[in-house]
Amino acid sequence: MSDPFSIAGQWFKGNLHVHTTASDGRMTPQETVASYAEHGYDFLSITDHEAVTETAGLDDKGMLLIPGIELGGGRTDLDSSYHMVAIGAKGPMEYDTQWSAQKLIDYGTENAEFVFMAHPYWLSLTLADMIDLDGCIGLEVYNTFCHHDVGRGESGELWDDLLARDKRMLGFAVDDAHGAELDAWIGYIMVKAPACEYDDIIEAIKAGSFYSSNGPTISNIKREGDRLLVECSPCQEVCAVCPAPGLGGTNWRTEQKPPLTEIELQLFEGSDPVRIECIDAEGNKAWSNPMWLPD
Fold it and tell me: Fewer CB near the last or first residue (10 Å), C or N of the chain?
């Protein structure tokens, strides 16, 4: 995985999961594009259910529009269907909702740029549901719609369960906006790339050159052995989350008092991988992708 804080490039803000009137959203595709552009986004993927929504004829309002789709199918341990987001769809992507989860991932990987798992906590996905699946590059660590709809927007625990078993998955914050109150313009990723062009953004995301947020900004993360430096917008709490049992670190183990904009944490031996969570005074979070020590 790439370290976005140490490479050249610019930061670009984007959302990779949103619905329109082409499926079960309340805003038209053009209204959706205009609204995200108005809120300062650089790129957007419309991911309506079961069909790729055509964006070629839309006014992009200066944003990069990436074709996408939300796939649904297979059965989980609790008899729910899996939902997966395929970004960079290369065609209409017609599929069968009776396909298994693995077949959906394979199909999405073959017919799009990459696939990640949608709202795992909302679906009550377990480790058993996910551990044997291959080809999914990540999961939604935060989903705005699920947070405001039923209070189940965060999926950090499942993410850590997978990371602890060496399933190297990226974490995405998304809106999954349907046009309901408070479900748009909140969850996003910040991608470090040479330019906001299709190939650059796609390759940067696949390399993990981004962090996720619903508010705070992370400007730098630097790890040197057991020392970890984090620079961020003013936050109450900075956590170094390690999936291994009993490891990691937080600002509560230091003498530094919030609000925090720069903090150095000392990690326990064996804290590998580590991911960062920065939490502001309103409870909003930013999530880094996991970082591994060099072999």
Answer: C
